[in-house]
From TrEMBL:
Native source species: Myxobolus squamalis (Myxosporean)
Chain ranges of the Exportin-2 C-terminal domain: 22-242
A GO molecular-function descriptor: small GTPase binding
Gene3D superfamilies for this protein: Leucine-rich Repeat Variant
Name of the protein this chain belongs to: Exportin-2 (Trinotate prediction)
Family matches, as InterPro entries: ARM-like (IPR011989), ARM-type_fold (IPR016024), XPO2_C (IPR005043)
Length: 243
């Protein structure tokens, strides 16, 4: 079948390293959807093998991009069509993701964060110690004092944590920490394009109520920034947030 023909082609070598097989795989998966169900575990296994291989083989950025896009799509389809196997197949991947993040091979950190977000959003294996550690580190301003692209991917991970297990991981102290992070990042125009992603995650996924209202001090930070230092991206982010 087409998958058994495609999967050997995605593996890089010193002579061949093309993103075309990944594009074909993505296209086929999008078209066949549920018909790919019997092959999804095999596809994920082969994608994991490729992840290991790129630590020793030189590959170009498009190869990396479509590798992770294939991975994310396969995980989403696995959760839709074989949800009972998702935890079993994705939990080992989480531990490996942290190993890859430490190496940051081919500057893949942002892709790995997004891949981790896809897993956590559907099954948050919070018993894995590395997950607890990264969630704790996300509550420090130093974690977010990075380039704006990484803030975007980290905000996706934060959204995944909140949506998957806010009742389990969130405390009043956590909430205050994230408010502090938003307030500090919002004062730096370098993060104007992404800072509201953090706030959106808090608003959409945290269990606000009359007994636990959304902190109005957030708007003090926003209006202070709008008053003293207007920038188009910040204004656009705010308008998108309130609508």
């Amino acid at each position: 079948n087409i998958f058994t023909c495609l999967l050997p082609l995605i593996k890089p070598s010193s002579n061949s390293c093309s993103d075309v097989p990944f594009k074909c795989l993505i296209s086929v998966l999008l078209h066949v959807q549920s018909y790919a169900k019997p092959y999804l575990p095999l596809i994920l296994e082969n994608l994991s093998i490729v992840l290991d291989m790129i630590t020793t083989v030189s590959v170009k950025p498009p190869f990396i991009h479509y590798l992770y896009e294939s991975f994310c799509l396969s995980l989403r389809l696995l959760h839709i069509h074989i949800p009972t196997t998702f935890h079993q197949l994705s939990s080992p991947l989480v531990s490996r993701i942290f190993q890859y993040m430490e190496r940051d091979v081919h500057n893949s950190y942002d892709y790995l964060i997004q891949l981790l977000s896809v897993v956590i959003l559907r099954d948050c294996p919070f018993e894995i110690n590395q997950l607890k550690l990264i969630y704790s580190s996300m509550q420090t301003i130093t974690f977010w004092d990075i380039d704006s692209d990484r803030v975007y991917s980290s905000a996706l991970l934060l959204s995944a944590f909140f949506k998957a297990s806010s009742h389990f991981v969130l405390t009043d102290k956590d909430c205050q920490n994230f408010i502090t992070i938003f307030s500090k990042l919002s004062q730096n125009s370098r993060f104007d394009g992404v800072v509201f992603n953090i706030l959106k995650a808090m608003v959409i996924y945290l269990p606000w109520s009359s007994n636990n209202p959304f902190p109005s001090i957030i708007f003090d930070f926003i209006f202070q920034r709008l008053t003293c230092h207007k920038k188009p991206k910040f204004i656009s982010g705010f308008c998108d947030f309130i609508y």
